[in-house]
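Changelog-adjacent note: as of this version, every example in the card shows the full chain rather than a window. The one below runs 253 residues end to end.
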Amino acid sequence: MFLRRLAEVGNVSKLAREFGFNRVTCCAWAHQAGVFSSSHADDRRQEFLRLRSGGLPRGQAARELGIDQHRASGWDQGIRQFSKGRVYPDGRVVLYNQDEILAAVRRPRRRWAHGDYVPVAALEKVLDARYLSLIERERIKDLVQQGMSIRQVAVAIGRAASTISRELRRNTVGAAGYLPHTAHRLSAKARTRPKVARLTTAGPLQDYVAGKLAKRWSPEQIAHRLGKERPQDRQMHVCTERIYQAIYVHSKG
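Full-length structure tokens:
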């Protein structure tokens, strides 16, 4: 089943996620069966091999594609690299840290996101159509690399220009450019972080709201008055719905 799907999909990483197998094991199976070849490699690797076959020196080809010399040397030798090791053309899989790999296989599948882990289920969960999906983020990267402006990208994927601008501003890192997968992991992490409601914490905002409620003010009146009295103080702003939620939680003890 695995090899038949590999012949159809042509992507070991995607298939490993689909079946829930370890990617290293899948790479080894594919090489042993002689199915996995350079034709399934990523676009940059294919472009590098095309330039090399055209007679371009390795160093120049690497510079044109923005890859380091170590990776270029491995591609020349037919070696495929991944975060935990290397896969050689003869099917050998060399792991950098065997104990770390075994531990990773045994624990629930997770993704690293700037200092924390994000469960795969959180990455794949679609909360609402208003949130950017991973496919949309990958599309943004492709369109930006093609030289499209923010407004052109927005029109192409059917999003607001402000959404694209904010997404690029938050997740563009130096020479690496926009990072769609990192952006998606951080977005998923932000959804599940512990969030403490400001009205449950003692302070000026809680005192103000409690005082107005004691005077029989409605949540709508309180929220509106705060916006009028403290227009520049974001810590003293609260929406009507938050006040209703606080009242509901308080009434339940």
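Structural remarks: The two ends are 55 Å apart (CA to CA).
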